Sequence to fold (312 residues):
Amino acid sequence: MGMSIAYGPADADEALRTLDRAAELGITFLDTADAYGRGANEELIGDWLRDRGRRADVFLATKFGLRHDAASGRVGDVDTSPEYVPVACDASLRRLGVEHIDLYYAHRRDPGTPIEDTVGAMAELVAAGKVGHLGLSEVSPATLRAAHAVHPISAVQLEYSLFTRGVVEGEMLATCRELGVSVVAYSPLGRGMLAGALASREELTEHDNRRRWPRFSADNIERNLALVREVRAIAAEIGITPAQAALGWLLAQGDDILPIPGTKRVPYIEENAEAVRLSLTAEQADWLRAAVPGTSVAGERYPEQAMRRLGH
Fold:
């Protein structure tokens, strides 16, 4: 996502260099969505796959369901109607320049559309050979169970990090493990804050969406940066970077937890990739968990309108 929107101006050349370096490092899981830049991110990935001849080397995931308001350009309604499912998929296939999507998610769920209807339409994409596996994002355990009864759900994408644990831990993770569903952890670095490089709100440019997000507000950011300093101290004691500590902690939660840091620059992809080679001890993982008590993070993870789209 960050290669096209949200975290300052897009830099297509740097994005392509980062994708090249990711491939060199053995990173094979690429996650995009039709909502990222109104299709621009899928087109970027599609250009890279075609120009580098990399389609056979990657596991490609994309999402549908967040439609943009024509007037404002912002994400408006959620549409997971069965009629929209094949339309959205065909549009993604065109932008990506591929014939098959390995993992296709409903990005959010419209509570007015029965999940059984949505997944039934998605299952038809599997039968048609357009999609390999089905996923959901930011749904409730009950919705996951209902969906899984229609067609196996392979993955649920949820925000999960040292900063955001309650979304996953508890009933949701227990349900995923009972059903054999992987958890794809997005924003594993707390939208960059856990990487330890951000020192103040003033460093965020006017084009950076984080200025609108509660955890980066003037009222909350100092409290959250204090928690990051605790993580940084533990990382230094272990001999790794804060980003590697945050990713290593997630990897230590189980083989069914797959972090997807939204990297858009070469040095960061190299730093993050090192986390795969880490093996935190149980004691080190406990230190990191204790450094960020669940109730100590200030602010919701999204603005109010976006929060209303979650957990259905």
User: Anything to note?
Assistant: The CA atoms of residues 68 and 74 lie 5 Å apart.
